Amino acid sequence: MTHKISELHSQANDLLDSNRIFEAISIVRVMLEESGVRSQIDNLLKIEQTYKYMIHYLIEGAHDEGRDRMLSDISGRLRMLSDMAVRASMTPDSPDYYYAVLRFVNLRKECLSDIISDYGKIVSEMSLAELGGNDVSEMRKRKEEQLVRLFNSIFVSFGSDSEYAEIARYLASGYADGNVSAQSISALTLSLLCFYDKGKFSTLLDIYDNTTSEKLAARTLVGIVLSMVKNAGRIASDRQLMDRLSIWKDSIITYRRLHEVIRVIVGTRDTERVSSKMKDEVIPEIMKLRPDILKKLKESDGDPETMMENNPEWEEMLSKSDLTQKMRELSELQSDGADLMMVTFSGLKQFPFFNTAANWFLPFDSDHSEIKLSEGLRKLMEVMRNAGSMICDSDMYSLALAFAQMPDAQKNMISGQISAQIDQFNEETRTALPSSNTPEFDTETLKSVRDLYRFFKLFRKREGLKDPFARPLNFIELPVIGEMMNDNEMLELIGEFYFKRGYYADALVMLTLLTEDKFGDASLWEKIGFCHQAQNRMAPALDAYEKASLIKTPGPWLIKKLAYVNRRLGNYRKASEYYLQALQMDPDNVSLLMNSGNMLLESGDTAAALTHYYHANYISPDSPRILRAIAWAELLSGNFSKSSGYYGKVTDIDARPSDYLNAGHSALLRSDRKEAVRLYRLSADGNKSDFEMAFISDMPVLESLGADRIVLQLVLDTVLAGKED
Predict the structure, then answer these.
(1) Tens digits of residue pLDDT in 687-725
(2) 529 inside domain
(3) What angle do CA 460, 461, 467 make, to 5 degrees?
(4) Domain for residue 252, yes or no?
(5) The domain containing residue 61 runs over which residues?
(6) Please, which pLDDT band fits residue 379 given cuts at 50, 70 and 90?
(7) 269, 285, 310 — which closes off a domain?
(8) DSSP notation for 227-273
(9) What is the dihedral of CA 554, 560, 562, 563, to 10 degrees?
(10) Would 303 be classed as within a structural domain?
């Protein structure tokens, strides 16, 4: 039945996209009946009646200013009923985490208002007990359980607009603590990534619009943007929501906040690459050096400072490895905001604590019942939390849980070392933070995005959850936000990020949009050309490079690019002209000399090609590549003896089957057929099939140089047969 409901769901959405409402109503009716959600049939009948009235007034020619809004509302309500049927059909048997939680919540028949009330009572009891100096460990566990209940209830609720309104009121009341706020917003976000629910999205907007907390605003705005990624079409078709979002266009504060949220989300694109670099390059390099490091530590009695003083070869050892360069690259990536901590903490997400989705979004609390830390370690964790550390909350829990697993002796040693360094750590953390006018919002944005990213990449029960980070964020397509962010500052920022990291397809979108206002920017066209070239799109690359060359006098880089793409497109004469321009700036560049010679040869100017080849040979006399080029060009010029001489040099230095083949051509053309057969046999040795194909391919050239076709065929037959002449 689930498969059938899913098919009907797709059909209904396709019909609604085309405004074929009557047919969609019929399909939704079947879905509700098949899935057992018959309680919503009356609701469907009301929607159908409203639509009939609207059509009646339309046919009668009545003016109706609210028709578009009504149609949007009808379509949205039908989609919601369709989603409800899918949800109901999957609830009994689906192994996905969402449905496992839904079954549990349904079993307990939990009410959100009761959970909020119970949580408030426990917090009050804890406060009184702490004032009286009583043990609150059991109360703390109950409080934590209530937070999980709150998260789960919001996560799997659907269409409960009154409960959502209560959440928004509670968070705005001032009675909700940071834990409740974080859990509520995160649950709303995750839920919207499973099923679109207008009430939940509106609740996120309510929370954002009414909060005065920078932290709360950051977490909520991240949720709104990611919800839009999944549900852009549903939101864009809702006139009420679009009108509400449009108000943001007049808010400089929201513009700046969105700027930061999108920048951080886009930055997650690099996390996997950075993590791979750490795992595949940096850590293996460190492991290779480990024996040498241990040896030098032993020689210095385990004192790193003594080791550095007494072993000047230490620096040489590092410089000979690739580690220094790799660490430098990672340092640059980190300074640009790359998440180097993902790979560090990914292995510390195996604790049972992380089997519960709610715990991934819980603000760090060193008093959490699952954390057992010494006083020194607790102090360190609190400093890290309060000092605006860039470590996200789930990583803080990973660190604390890892500390808790250490033997007591090791914990005491670390605590002793830490107590003397707390102030220094605090200062270093503060100075390491990026300069910002709104550091609290920016830091919370970064931490919220990282918590979400880790959840979707590392949560063990994530099957069925829609990962908003699976594809690059195309923020230009988001309703209202895309319009707000479509300015030069944002396009340049994201375009440069993608370009610098090598995501050329994504960079191209941003850079192309920039040309509307910056058509006369030559460097912009150069980057666009390079993006096309990197994707093997040579024609548009040439177009972009030529635009750049019209705007400014081309420098060496642009001239070489123009030469290269013309060469790839088969415009050999044009390519040779550009290589000649490049040679005027760098006349002894062997690579340019060879490329220029190759293009001249391809365009039929063999004499000019030889001039460049001989120039290159003068600079680099023993290069097989250059010798091969001269030998072939001399052969094409009819200087067969000279060609044979150069092929002789090549085979003495770096003999390949193709060299013996071409040397055989030279011998054959100068009528030394016996030598030709000998050389051909050397070429064919081991792979006669390849030799035959190459020989036949060269026959038209050989005939144009005076060889007789019959002779060529007989020589080929002799070589392939292996017979002596």
Answers:
(1) 899 999 999 999 999 999 999 999 999 999 999 987 554
(2) no
(3) 95
(4) yes
(5) 2-90
(6) confident
(7) 269
(8) HHHHHHHHHHT-HHHHHHHHGGGG-HHHHHHHHHHHHHHHHGGGHHH
(9) 130
(10) no
